[in-house]
Amino acid sequence: MIAQQVINGVMLGSIYVLVGVSFTLAVGILNFLNFTIPGLFMMGGMVTWVMLTKGWHWTFAIGAALAAAALVSLAVEQLSYRRTRGADPEVPLVSSLGFLVLLENLALVGLGSDQQAFPSLLGDLNFRIGGLVIGAAQAISLLVTFLLVVGLSIVLGQTSLGRQIRAIAESRGTAVLLGVNVGRLVPKVFVLTALFTALGGVMFALSYLQVSPFMGEGVGFKGIAAMIIGGMGSVWGAVIGGLIIGIIEVGSIWAFGADTVNIAVYGSLLALLILRPYGLFGQPTVREKL
To answer: Which fold has domain 2-275?
Structure first.
């Protein structure tokens, strides 16, 4: 049934939305393509799994995963972004890629390369609407994603913190002249991206009941694709992009088989870039070098 595949695609796309929004925050605000994000996604799932196997309650396990991701993201800000901000853009990018490799290999050495079964916290609970079946974990993931994005939009659009963040996105120099404490604000943006990304990893683990040291790589590339499809710097564009990718991925598996997923997803991305280079909601902009 096509309607069921669309539902499945939207549920999967909600995971890509969180990662896409994280990349949007990093690129749109800091002009920094943070390749640590797939590692933070992996930490969300893996740390939660480790804590659950040690007998922790799921709330504390997820809290530990979020805290660990936030700390790692602060380390990236201090050691990668801040120290190399004046260098060519490729330098912090490669540095963050080094963090990704380090995180994945630490997980590989400490926990092994095998894919691990994540415990089902909700059992086999499903919702049935007519002939459609919606898994409880997937429905919760979609709801959490929607609430987080709405909350982020309110913060960016209606609060003093949001105005300061948007000022940095427009021009760091102008923001400093307006009295924005960039040194204190940028770490908050890094923590925010870490929380969104790690929650994506947790939601993925809850929905698909599996984790592995390299679980973030494929999702990370699709998160970048979601950001590009939606338009660089557009939070709601990343939302639409993530949902589109989820639907394309599930639809291609249903229609043509799993081997066609990457062809369908990245072929669609390429076609969009040819027709609209700035994405669905993006606009051509001239940015200062950070």
So the answer is: ABC transporter involved in vitamin B12 uptake, BtuC (1.10.3470)
pLDDT the model gives residue 289? 41
232 phi/psi in degrees, rounded to 5: -60, 125
> What is the tens place of the pLDDT at every residue in 139-195?
888 899 999 999 999 988 888 888 888 888 777 777 777 788 878 888 999 999 999
Q: Where are the domains of the chain?
A: 2-275
Is the CA virtual torsion 217, 218, 220, 224 positive or negative?
A: positive
Tell if the pTM clears 0.85, that is, is over it.
Answer: yes
Sheet strands (E) in the chain = 116-117, 126-129, 132-135, 210-211
DSSP string, 137-181: HHHHHHHHHHHHHHHHHHHHHHSHHHHHHHHHHH-HHHHHHTT--
Per the CB < 8 A criterion, the answer to whether 235 and 21 are in contact is yes
- Which two tokens mark 76? 């990236």
The answer to whether residues 111 and 46 touch, using CB atoms and an 8 Å cutoff, is yes
